[in-house]
Amino acid sequence: xxxxxxxxxxxxxxxxxxxxxxGCAHSLEAKRGGSASPILSLAGxxxxxxxxxxxxxxxxxxxxxxALAESxxxxxxxxGCFSQVLQNYQPGRIPAGQLVDLVVQPxxxxxxxxxxxxNWATQWPGVVVFSTWWNGLLYYLDVDTAVSMTDSxxxxxxxxxxxxxxxxxxxxxxxxxxxxxxxGWFVLTGVAFLSALVPTYWDDDMRLDANQKIRExxxxxxxxxxxQSLDKxxxxxxxxxxxxx
Length: 245
Known about the structure:
Layout (H helix, E strand, L loop, with lengths): L1 H21 L3 E7 L19 E5 L6 H15 L6 E6 L12 E13 L1 H8 L7 H4 L2 E15 L5 E16 L17 H6 L8 H26 L16
Parallel strand pairs: 2-3, 2-4
Antiparallel strand pairs: 1-6, 4-5, 5-6
């Protein structure tokens, strides 16, 4: 009996120090939900003519939303659909004689959330089977995008709205009762019970990792939606050459 208790004690102590030694090692995976499908080549959706596209400064509130806006601009620039793409466009601040056919301006809002009940169960009872390592915690990232598109020659415009959902699976040995606290590993204590409720929220490191995971997928997806929506605008007309001085 004493030998069995000693074995259990060593197992608990070992389990307590493993996450402490591992530090913040983690793995994050992002999967687009809903009717997600592979992003195909953008070239097939290009307009017949190759207009000059200007991308106005996006409406965003932080660096993560700005990074997504930049990914859309990069995807549009590499699409091969436009003769020229001007980023951070501001009317009146372009070289004299420079003509712009189309102007788009994205507005992006990211909403972060999590599956609190599942994450709590994973962190507290799940501590016994190391579930935060192999099963991970579940978070959600929703991106609301509104894009205004304007034909600068006719002044007519159109709006595009997109709501995109991503499931974020985060496996870590440094969350909740895995935070490295020896006390936290006594899973029947109130300390461990309460600590599992706290760290289900997003932090800046997770926001950065998730942003990097979804950036390319989001950028190409939104670029394709924008290009496909150009047919809602008046058909491109031939651009007149700048008047000679």
